[in-house]
Amino acid sequence: MGRSTHTSGVQKKRTKTAGSSANLPRPDNAHSTGVGDTGRWSSKRIAIYALFSALAMAVSFIEIPLMPAAPWLKYDPSGIVCLVSGFAFGPSAAAIVSVIGFLPHVFSNPLGALMAMICALALSVPAALVYRNHKTRGRAVAGLIIGSVCALIAAIVCNLFITPLYAHMTMMQVAAMIVPILLPFNLIKLAIHDVVTFLIYKPISKLVG
Fold first, then answer.
1. Lower Cβ count inside 10 Å, N or C end of the chain?
2. What is the pLDDT of residue 19?
3. Do residues 49 and 86 lie in contact, with contact meaning Cβ atoms separated by under 8 Å?
4. Structural domain boundaries of the chain?
5. Would the pTM count as exceeding 0.85?
6. CATH says 41-61+74-208 is which class?
7. pLDDT of 69-109, one tens digit each?
């Protein structure tokens, strides 16, 4: 009788311990989707990355001239998709979407597509790295600013060294365009990316999460 009572007490204690371990809090960077930067590749993670990559591909064909003085420079919203994917799922998602999103353009304009990939990577990966461990609006703003600075530098460098290879322009001619054309265009483009991303990244993260 006494032995039986003692045994049941031990069982109750074990049950309570097991229940308490089930209620341990998750890490702050855990996602309900299981598609965060944990190093594990699930079918859901692959599907979400593919969805964002396809969306980046689609919107990369939307081309809007921003400056009448330079109608060949056109804005496309693919950078927003790269930024949102990075904020939602980490820098690896940002990198994958930034590269895959411009693959269709490799066949028609390989050097232009390379420039677009480099600038998208320079924008979205640093932003995602800054935001990853502290998911606050302040960190989002900091990430967007840092990413934009990196992207602006990448755009200028790419224009100086890659544009002359296919646009029949010398490096000096491109350099002369930096202040009056390239800087204003890229600042406007990045400002649009940043503002739209800041407005939509939280709702979209919750939607896909």
1. N
2. 46
3. no
4. 41-61+74-208
5. no
6. mainly alpha
7. 889 899 999 999 999 999 999 999 999 999 999 999 999 99
